[in-house]
Membrane associated serine protease, rhomboid family
Amino acid sequence: MGGAERDGSGPGAVRPEEMIAEARKAFFVVFGFLAVVWLLQVANYTGHYALSRDYGVVSSDVGTLPNVLTAPFLHWSWAHIESNSGPLFVFAFLAAYRGVGRFLALSLLVAVTSGLAVWFFEQGNADTVGASGLIFGYFGYVVVRGLFDRHLIDTLIGIVMAASFAYMLTVAVPGTPGVSWLGHLGGLVGGLVGAWLFRDRRVRGDRPARRGGGGPAVTRGDAPLPADNPRADLHKELGDLGLL
C-alpha cells in the first residue's frame, strides 16, 4: 500500500505563477504609493507646505503623536522628495514582492517605530516629515529577510543591497545637519524587527515523497508534485534556489 498523495495545493504551496502575480501586484502597489506621495507634494507645495506643518511629528508634542502615520507621506521641498523617491521605490518593491499584505504590515510597523523615535528623543521643536524612515526600514528588512526566511535568493539580494547602499547608514547616526538621524535609526530598527516578526513560517522539506502507485514525487515545501507533472523540474530548480 503506497503513501498518501498530495495535490500541491497545501497551505505552504507557492506556485511560480502565484509568485509572479504577487510581484506584479507589489509593483502596482508601490507605484501607487509613490504616486500618492507625489500628489501630496503638489498639494503641499501649492499650500506653502501647510500639510508638512500640520501633519509632521514634533518631539514631545502629544497633539502630533498620531502624525507618525502621516509624516512619511510628506516632504519639505522638491529636492527632499526627489532624493527619497528612487530608494523608496526600489526598497519598497523588494520588501513587497514576497507578499503585499506582509509589506503593508511592515510599513505600519516602520512608520510607528520611526515616528516614535523622533517623538521621544528628538531635541527642540523640529517638525519632522519624509519617507526616509520608511526607506531605512525597508532597507533593514530586505538585508536580513533572507536569513529569517531561509530563502537563498533573498539572502543574496540582501547582501547586494547591503554592499551597494551601506553608505546610507552614515545618516542613521548623529552628525548630519538638517537630517533626522533618529527617524532613520527608528525606521531601520523597525525593519529589522519586522523581518523577524513577518518571517516565513511555512514548514520546508527537502526529502522526496513517494506517490501511491509509482515513481518519486518532487517535494516543494510540504506540497509534493508528481514526477510526471510538467512543472516538476521547474519547481525543483526554484526550490533549490530558495525561490519557493
